[in-house]
Task: structure prediction
Amino acid sequence: MKVVCRICAQPIDDNPGKDLAPATSLGALHLSCQKKLFGSSLPLLPTLSKSDFLGERLQTHTRRMSISGMQPKLSVALTATQSELKIHPVNMEREQAGVLILKPDPNEFPNAAVLEFFGMHHAQRFGIDTPAIALLDLPEFSQPVFAIRRFDRDLRGNKTAHVEDAMQVMGLQRRGEDSKYEGATAEEAGRGMWIACGKRRQVAADFLKRLVFSFLLGNGDHHLKNISIIRSWRSREPNYDSLAPAYDLVPTGALLGDSEMALTLLGTSQNPEFTDSFNQLGFHTSEDFQELGKRLGLPEKYTATLCRNLRNFFQLKVIPSVERFPFLEDQEGLRIKLRECLEDRLGKFSYTNKKIK
Ligand SMILES: [Zn+2]
Result:
């Protein structure tokens, strides 16, 4: 079996002198990939245990079942000595800030970590801006743990950016947890974020891209807390700069068989609207996203090209990769579920293709 890097998922040439990080219990890494994620080429020394995760478990109660709500998380800091880089839980007394977040599988959803890595890895491949990620082995965990860099801090834990999620942008943060699904439609959230970023067309375009990507990935949990905007910490501009890097892109359809979209696409939360195509078929096709693109002020041609590129990407790259994705090698049952979920979404998306040829 080939040795594969836990950050880029590409094979590693393990001959001496090649791009190989010093061996650790975390799994094999390219040295260049390690530098990108950890900002250091020192040998890595994880000093954390399973019990560190217990107090961090987020308990949220919503009507919908959500994986992120059940997922234990741990914020970790990095401390360099002369000979190694320690990875350890943040020290509250020293007011240390975490720079990486570690997410093991919740008991209820085995394989959530590898599926999140799969979703985020392919988002990167498509050119969606994401933080650095990895799928690491940790002591005491039988399954690998998903790791992601915080995008609002540098590697020393200093704050580098203001971030606001779509719940905050829409002024819904005081309402209950369910409003992350019901408080606004995608059309309202997309418009709200576009306005908060000074009406930059790129923001509407990126927003739509992530929504279509999530649909095709089978991510039924792309709700208002999972989309954010970002502004440099030093910026004096009243507006935000752009969408924040993407996160929480999990093919939840392969785990839960849950709904296709976390958000209603069109209209307002008070008056949701549906396309004729949706009313006839009962599921979303590319036509629904074409309509959303139009309402967000994007040229028809742009949305058509985006839909075509994403459809081709899933057909030619993502679905074929399921069988050879290194971290799914010994998981035949999961590969079947994931493949079924991806094929179901692609079939629906492509169903009536009058506009996309
Ligand atoms: Zn790598």
